[in-house]
Specification:
The protein is α/β, with parallel strands linked by helices and 472 residues long. The chain is 56% helix and 13% strand. An 8-stranded mixed β-sheet has the order 3-2-1-4-7-6-10-5, with helices on both faces. Strand 2, helix 4 and strand 3 form a beta-alpha-beta unit. Helix 2 crosses helix 7. The longest helix has 28 residues.
């Protein structure tokens, strides 16, 4: 039962060994065994994501009439920006109700500043059948989700009897309060979940505020790569590691009391953990042996940060969640494809290998061909990824993905390093979007760390420049 876990250890050692030898053995320029391994990994991602998309297309129209009205929709939110909350509510009105039998809206907070969400929900969903709206004492997103899942389970028992909790067909779709659903998104998710071995699934997120500046445009292209390539690849092997919070679907029978208790009470060094709810719930379901899927045919839109400070804090929260969840991801290895171990090795070690590569490149003297090679390889990889996405969708916005290269080296790489060292900090970091709550914990040291990293880069470039000035 530990074969795949041992394979993970061997894979880690092999990758680290090939990485080290790439500095020592370079028979020809632009070639190393480690680089070839990364190229092979990308080709596997590209091919398997294509096969995943093709498989999902074959599922269109495959649901039998007996599966109609098997979905409950759960919407959770806290002091959402009114514009985004209205977008969410209007999109709920447009989804076909043939496969939705119950809409549950739970608002996190029952203070005067929270009532606007309740009133807007009652206004925009007036006349929509089977809508239940709740305001509860503030308990965080995990508390809301756990409460919502229990409400849905209780209603299912009242309607169908206790046997329903052991059946495979009842499903619950979870969306955030800033999510704008496309009309067929829920139906596409339900088609994926027709396979009883699938315990959860997610769709694809788009960004609806790309007009707010350059940053949302770049984030939109990054989302496209993450969902249509990275997650679609893992989905093909049945081990997609994060059902996204803004749009995901779960099998009710996988959300039993023990799982919900572990989900709501996850701790980090003895303290309750709130961030990373989507990734942790996915891991808990995968650890039961269920498959986790993604379909690019289920589309929803969400908001992306337009301010750099908020974007950096969001990335810090997500990166910390990843490092905290590695342990739980490793616990899923024995239940899933061998590819899960390979993907985990890549996700875990890649930032640190890039860090070493940059330090060696900038602070040790090299032949000018090595610098040419480094620039060409880094730029070539980002161009190859962008071209692959562009061929698929022909969206001109995708060329903003080229900006991800400098963004990664200047901001995202140090965030990953900082997150790895501060993973025990489970504070939410980013504030709500309503504008009502403006209190944010001080993160002076975090921004000082980012600034120090940028000085390290600048000083390294200076050292390299002085070296070549001396050589010439």
């Amino acid at each position: 039962m530990v074969l795949k876990t041992l394979a993970f250890v061997v894979e880690s050692l092999v990758v680290c060994g090939l990485y080290v030898t790439s500095y020592l053995i370079r028979p020809i320029p632009f070639f190393s065994m480690y680089g070839c391994l990364l190229l092979l990994f990308f080709l596997i991602q590209a091919m398997s994501s294509y096969l995943n998309h093709r498989k999902n297309k074959t599922l269109i129209g495959s649901l039998s009439p007996s599966r109609k009205k098997s979905i409950r929709l759960l919407v959770v939110g806290h002091r959402e920006k009114k514009e985004y909350w209205i977008r969410c509510l209007e999109s709920i009105r447009t989804i076909p109700k043939t496969n939705v039998h119950g809409i549950y809206i739970i608002i996190d907070g029952n203070e005067p500043d929270d009532y606007y969400m309740y009133h807007l929900a009652r206004e925009y969903l007036h006349g929509v059948p089977h809508v239940q709206t709740y305001m509860v004492e503030k308990r965080g997103k995990r508390g809301l989700l756990s409460m919502g899942f229990k409400y849905i389970r209780n209603d299912l028992v009242l309607e169908y009897g206790s046997k329903i909790l052991r059946e495979t067909w009842p499903l619950v779709v979870v969306v955030d309060s800033d999510t704008e659903l496309e009309p067929e998104s829920l139906l596409r998710l339900e088609e994926v979940m027709a396979d009883p071995n699938n315990g959860c699934a997610t769709g694809v997120l788009r960004i609806y505020n790309t007009q707010d500046g350059l940053l949302p445009k770049m984030i939109a292209t990054r989302y496209q790569y993450a969902f249509t390539i990275e997650r679609a690849c893992l989905s093909y092997f049945g081990c997609m590691t994060c059902c996204s919070g803004p749009l995901s679907i779960y099998r009710v029978c996988a959300l039993h009391d023990e799982i919900l208790e572990r989900f709501a009470t996850q701790t980090v060094y003895g303290e309750l953990c709130e961030p990373g709810d989507d990734r942790h719930l996915t891991n808990l379901i995968m650890a039961q042996g269920y498959r986790s899927r993604q379909t690019s045919l289920a589309v929803a839109a969400t908001e992306a940060p337009a301010e750099m400070r908020r974007f950096l804090l969001q990335q810090l929260r997500w990166s910390r969640s990843f490092f905290r969840e590695v342990y739980w991801q490793l616990k899923c290895l024995e239940h899933h494809s061998w590819f899960l171990g390979i993907a985990t090795v890549y996700e875990l070690f890649f930032p640190f290998m890039i860090l070493c590569w940059l330090c060696v490149l900038l602070y040790l003297p090299h032949d000018y061909l090595l610098y040419t090679e480094a620039i060409a390889v880094a730029f070539g990889i980002i161009v190859l990824r962008t071209l692959f996405m562009f061929v698929q969708s022909r969206d001109p916005l995708l060329w903003y993905n080229l900006l991800y290269l400098p963004m990664y080296f200047i901001f995202l790489l140090p965030i990953k390093i900082y997150a790895a060292g501060t993973a025990r900090d489970s504070s939410w970091v980013t504030p709500d979007r309503s504008g009502l709550t403006r209190v944010m914990p001080p993160y002076l040291f975090f921004f000082l760390f980012i600034g120090a990293w940028q000085l390290v880069l600048l000083f390294g470039i200076l050292v390299t420049g002085l070296h070549w000035a001396h050589v010439w």
